[in-house]
Amino acid sequence: MENINFKVYTSISNLPENWNAIAASNHFLQTPYLEVLENSAPTNMECFYIGIFENNILVGTLLSQYLDLNKLESFGERDSFFKKHVRNFIFKNFASHVLFLGNNMITGQNAYALSKEIEHKHLSQLLIDCSDALILYFKNKGIKIHIVSFKDFYENNATLFKKHHFKNLYEFNAQPNMIFNLNENWTSKEDYVAAFTKKYRDQYKRAHKKYNGIIEKELSLEDVVSLENRINELYHYVAKNAPFNTFFLADNHFSTFKKQCGNRFKIFGYFLDNKLVGFHTLLLNGEVLETYFLGYDDEIQKNNMLYLNMLYNMTEFGIEHNFKKIIFGRTAIEIKSSIGAEPVYMSGFILHTNSFLNKYIGKIFQNLEPNLEWNQRHPFK
Questions:
Q1: Sign of the C-alpha dihedral computed for residues 30, 31, 32 and 37 taken in this order
Q2: Please, what are the domains in the chain?
Q3: What is the pTM of this model?
């Protein structure tokens, strides 16, 4: 570790010139996306970009996010009155200042990218050192960080981290990341539909019949700008009715994303009688298709099975454009399994900076994370 150190940056303009080359494996750590965060992050979020150096040569990039949950209008409205208020009380009093090592806005292992292998023994120490530096940064500003979360690691990495400096941290497994590993023999939606059992082929046909009258269109930057108020309205409906939220996107987020990332960021609008009634977004991340935020009119969603049709459309886009897998994230996991996605459990590690409360972090976390019971579907022959 004596030859490895790090530097924290608060502005994209100060990053080393070769930052994108080091972060080449992950679009979510490259400057076009980081500029989206810098220019349109949620109002309760502050982002930090951390360079990892070996002998003063950049060998890694890392993203960290601070969330002030006191600024949040809602943590989610779907849960029961009692559970919602218990959770809100815990957050406001014991967990309102949260530091993430990783990206809290998306699901997946997106915390860091490395140009060379660093042993997990050293990497786990480095992540903790970075969190300590940011805790001190906020302390000097008069802000006490309550919770630190090291976010989203696949099982092999989590196991290795636990052997070293994460061994005393509380490991949590939230709802699974729904991932669709696409069949390499599929080249069209017809191949996809043909692989369904009769039950799920009938579901596909029923959804498309209900879809009648809705027109799907890929939106240009000009379209996104002109429709942004309506896009935000549809997004907020879905976000507020999610079981749990720690942020809401800025009003200019989608247009900023489209402007910064161009054709690597896709936004599709759904129109009924020339009115936007829904949208979904995709990010092209190498051989991986990442689903992003969406929104819809609830009445149209119910009457036209709009959400299910969106999932089919995302899948067909992935097949037709030769992606190897689609990352569908953690929401609506049962319906996602019905179109072919499978659960992949990921680990996070968490600590409370109050040593007494940290002893009970497991019980506290259980009150923050909504319970979920679901049945995995198996749609293929």
A1: positive
A2: 4-174+346-368 (3.40.630.30), 178-344 (3.40.630.30)
A3: 0.90
